[in-house]
Amino acid sequence: MNNPVTLVQDTVVLTPEGSSQRQESLAIEVPYTVALNDEEIGASMVLETALEEFGAGFLFGQGYVTRIGQVREVLVCPEGRISVYADVDENMKPKEVIITSGCGGTGKISREMLEGAFDPLREYSITFAEIRDFIRQGLQASPLGRETHCVHGCGFWSEGKLQAYFEDVGRHNAVDKIIGAILLGKFSAAGAIYTTGRLTSDMVLKCARIGIPVVMSRTSPSSLGLAIARRAGVTLAAYARPERVNIFHAPERIV
Amino acid sequence: MNNPVTLVQDTVVLTPEGSSQRQESLAIEVPYTVALNDEEIGASMVLETALEEFGAGFLFGQGYVTRIGQVREVLVCPEGRISVYADVDENMKPKEVIITSGCGGTGKISREMLEGAFDPLREYSITFAEIRDFIRQGLQASPLGRETHCVHGCGFWSEGKLQAYFEDVGRHNAVDKIIGAILLGKFSAAGAIYTTGRLTSDMVLKCARIGIPVVMSRTSPSSLGLAIARRAGVTLAAYARPERVNIFHAPERIV
Question: Do A27 and B223 touch (CB under 8 A)?
Answer without folding.
Answer: yes
